[in-house]
Amino acid sequence: MMDWIESTRRLLEAQRDMGIREFWVRSDAWDPWKVLRREVEGCRKCQLWRSRRRVVFGAGDTEAGIMFVGEAPGEEEDLRGEPFVGAAGELLTRMIRAIRMERREVYIANVLKCRPPGNRDPLPEEIEACKPYLFRQIELVKPKVICALGRIAGGTLLGTSLPLSRLRGKVHFALGTKVVVTFHPAALLRNPGWKRQAWEDMKLLRREYDGLELRR
Ligand code: URA
Q1: Does any ligand 1 atom lie closer than 6 A to the CB of residue 73?
Q2: pTM, to two decimals
Q3: β-pairing verdict for 171-174 and 177-182
Q4: What's the CA gap between 201 and 98, in Å, rounded?
Q5: Any ligand 1 atom below 6 A from CB of 88
Q6: 151, 163 contact by CB (below 8 A)
Q7: Phi-psi region for residue 133, left (φ > 0), alpha (ψ -120 to 50) or beta?
Q8: What are the helix (H) ranges across the chain?
Q9: Tens digits of per-residue pLDDT, 76-119?
């Protein structure tokens, strides 16, 4: 119910800002996912809209129990408008399969919805501008557990600048949801020696999803 009211409010405010005073709406115009997607696709809150080819909104099961959060689209994602479709995406697919799930069963989104030129790190002001979209996606999916991929995703969700080494290997709580932080798949491709620790994180993620207590 609250999703519907919030979406309606956003839609009406957007229309008011455009000077529209009278309108007819299709019944699916109130769908909170459609409202959010429209807002993100028209976003110009930071400079990245100038260089993006496609907005990468997010993909997967909008009622998933597990949500993966990456950093920002790369070149391939920017071309196709889908998250994690490049080399790092192939590894992410394998990580998801390793916990006995398929990509279509989880929801995948990024902190930034537009590609930073040359795949540079997101700037703090870009994260600030874009993170409300991610938080709204989390509010709508209501996952049981979020898996943050890398320091930027972990830090954004947990509101910290601690290094990844201090964030991974444990269960956090943020935005009403459990959060497990692990390495970004692109970092794992560069450092295959970290895969054993990543596997421990994935097992922790699966245990939390299954609702099991960590046995000591
Ligand atoms: N890296 C990310 O963080 N996200 C993507 O969608 C692709 C690569």
Answers
A1: yes
A2: 0.87
A3: antiparallel
A4: 11
A5: yes
A6: yes
A7: alpha
A8: 2-17, 32-41, 75-80, 87-98, 124-141, 151-158, 164-167, 185-190, 195-210
A9: 999 999 999 999 999 999 999 999 999 999 999 999 999 999 99
Alpha carbons 171 and 164: distance in angstroms, whole number: 13
Residue 57, ligand 1, Cβ within 6 A = no
Contacts of the segment 29-33: beta carbons below 8 A, 24+ positions apart? 30/4, 31/7, 32/3, 32/4, 32/6, 32/7, 32/140, 33/62, 33/140
Which numbered atom of ligand 1 lies nearest the CA of 70? 3
Q: Is 143 in the pocket of ligand 1 (CB under 6 A)?
A: no
In angstroms, rounded to a whole number, what is the distance separating the alpha carbons of residues 83 and 139?
A: 19
Ligand 1 close to Cβ of residue 58 (< 6 A): no
Ligand 1 closest atom vs CA 149: 3
- Please give the number of the atom of ligand 1 that sits closest to the Cα of 56: 6
Tokens of 54: 């496609």
